[in-house]
Amino acid sequence: MKSGMVIINKEKGDTSQTVVSKVKKILNLKKAGHIGTLDPLATGVLPILMGDATKLSKYLIEHDKTYRATIQLGIQKDTGDEEGNIVKTADIGFLDEKAVTGVLKEMQGKQTQIPPQYSAVKINGKKLYEYAREGKTVEIPARNIEIYEMKLIHLDTEKSQISFEVSCSKGTYIRVLCEDIAKKLGTVRIHEIFAKNESGQIFN
């Protein structure tokens, strides 16, 4: 049986498990699994462990992550990404680079974060997005995360978009992070993850 790791540049639209299934079929594998999870709309590196190498997952999944994301301010959707239904809109006002940079710096450090309702986190053996699709709400426990660094890449005042890079601990949801950034700027947002693995780290 083949053992080892393959690095997949996941395309937008595929779930992480779909990528694993494709790899298993192409390489004729009996056992394979991904390290962490990328949202279907996210693109970037998805490490796949094969055969006996899957035993290493519990060690590798602890690695920190680096993401690049773009926030579209002024619109919020129920799924926290470009899909879903609009639930809120808000005025954006003047976007100042100094103010945006200040907010990104302010949000660095250890903190708690509540995973989004539309996520694969399991509560009582059922995924959160399954509850959400049924119109049910459940109490979601907060998790401890750490934002090591966030830096502004580009500020587009005409489109009201903020592009940034963040280095963070495992378990960090970028959708929630974008919501928090928007709140501190006094508006709402929808965000879309464009690229990942700028530093060669493993991320979910």
Which features does this protein show?
Pseudouridine synthase; 2 domains; alpha+beta; globular; 35% strand; five-stranded antiparallel sheet; 204 residues; three-stranded antiparallel sheet; 21% helix
Query: Mean pLDDT, as a whole number?
Result: 83
Rg, Å, rounded: 18 Å
Strand coverage percent: 35-45%
- The geometry reads as globular
- What series of H and E elements makes up the topology? EHEEHEEEHEEEHEEHE
Please count the helical segments: 5
- Overall tally of domains: 2
The CATH class designation of the largest domain is: Alpha Beta
The rounded distance between the terminal residues' Cα atoms is 27 Å
Main pleated-sheet profile: 5 strands, antiparallel
Number of strand elements: 12
Strand order of the largest sheet: 7-10-11-4-12
